[in-house]
Amino acid sequence: MTPGRFSHFLAIDWSGARGERQKGIALALAHGDGGPPVLVERGTSWSREEVLAILLDLPDNTLVGMDLGIALPFSDCGAFFPQWDESPPDAKSLWAMIDRFCTGDPHFEATGFVTHERAREYFRHGKDAEGAHFHLRAATSREGRFRVAEQAQRQQGCRPVSNFNLVGAAQVGKSSLTGMRVLNRLQGRLPVWPIDPLPQTGSVLVEIYTSLAAKEAGIGSNRSKIRSYEDLNAALSTWQVPPVPGHGIISDHASDALLTAAWLREVAHDPARWAPGGLTDEIARTEGWTFGAF
Questions:
Q1: For the residues of the chain, what is the DSSP string, one character each?
Q2: Cα–Cα distance between 211 and 234 in angstroms, integer?
Q3: Confidence of residue 127 (pLDDT cuts 50, 70, 90)
Q4: Overall number of domains in the chain
Q5: CATH of the domain at 201
Q6: Nearest alpha carbon to residue 6 among 29, 39, 38
Q7: What's the average model confidence in pLDDT over 133-138?
Q8: pLDDT tens profile 155-174
Q9: Nearest to 218 by CA among 161, 266, 290
Q10: Phi, psi of 220 (to 5 degrees)
Q11: Is the pLDDT score of 183 beyond 60?
Q12: Does some domain include residue 12?
């Protein structure tokens, strides 16, 4: 990876909620030449279809970070769905399977998958409603299964939630599944690292975890989300980024996207970010990785 490889850095705070438009989706763009990151706004809440349209028509050499899991755990059991003969062999097959099972779901929702008679057995659906296979290889924890990249996040002081968990404010299962439907539509159009090799030129999409960016900006794991322009700009100053114009309250979705866009610009030139120690060819093909996890 050489300095200047990317000219734009787009961070997307994603949402798996039902409905056409999502208040939880936020997009922020940082230009490679510097300056503050800016929100990409359209006057109303974003739809997932509109985000897909942007991803299919990016400026050249854009690094996109999406805050979701690009795959499900595989390495712990040697399969996404052990004991199910339809369990796909790799991440791209997983995306296609989820998209196929959800053909009747509008707005890239994933209800058709999490309610499927076999698939649903691998997920936590409620406080007292866990599928029979939710705790595979998780005998020491009630949290469910984790990918290798998520174990690396834990070593860095973050607290990721299993992508098989569909419950609670911190859950990322629904956003990951809806995101995988979008990733399936990008095949052949936008590489997804490390499931696809990092191209020498052109745009690429990576999985991000906004808590990693926040930690590198000096925001401790015990601190609440950034909800003011003043706190956002204090965090951005870690990298000598000019302040984002504004005062007072900002949504945590917007602040996550803005901070992470600036962080992507700050660290993307570092070769070590693209060669984490735990990443193998098998993990890249099946589970993928989180950009910035070591």
A1: --TTS-SEEEEEE----SSSEETT-EEEEEETT-S--EE---SSPEEHHHHHHHHTSPPTTEEEEEES-SS---TTTTSSSTT-TT--SSHHHHHHHHHHHTTT-GGG--HHHHTSTTGGGGSEEETTEE-TTTTTT-TT-SS----HHHHHHHHTT-----TTB--STT--HHHHHHHHHHHHHHTTTS-BTTTSPPPSSS-EEEEE-HHHHHHHTT--TTSPPP-BHHHHHHHHGGGTPPPPS--SB--HHHHHHHHHHHHHHHHTT-GGGGS-TT--HHHHHHT--BTT--
A2: 16
A3: confident
A4: 1
A5: 3.30.420
A6: 29
A7: 80
A8: 999 999 999 999 988 899 99
A9: 266
A10: -70, 155
A11: yes
A12: yes
Tokens representing 153 are: 């996040």
Residue type, 169: A
Residue with tokens 């900006």: 217
What are the tokens at 37? 């990151």
Residue 64 counted as domain residue: yes
Rounded to whole angstroms, how far apart are CA atoms 217 and 64? 19
Transcribe 35-61 into DSSP letters: S--EE---SSPEEHHHHHHHHTSPPTT
User: For the whole prediction, is pTM greater than 0.85?
Assistant: yes
Q: Which residue type is seen at 215?
A: K
Containing structural domain, residue 209: 8-70+184-274
Which of 140-149, 172-181, 206-215 is least confident? Answer: 140-149
Cis peptide before 37 (omega within 30 of 0): no
pLDDT digits (tens, 9 = 90+) for 89-102: 999 999 999 999 99
Q: Is the residue at 238 inside a domain?
A: yes
Residue 84 Cα distances to 79, 89, 93, 285, angstroms: 9, 12, 15, 20
Whether 133 is in a domain gets the answer no
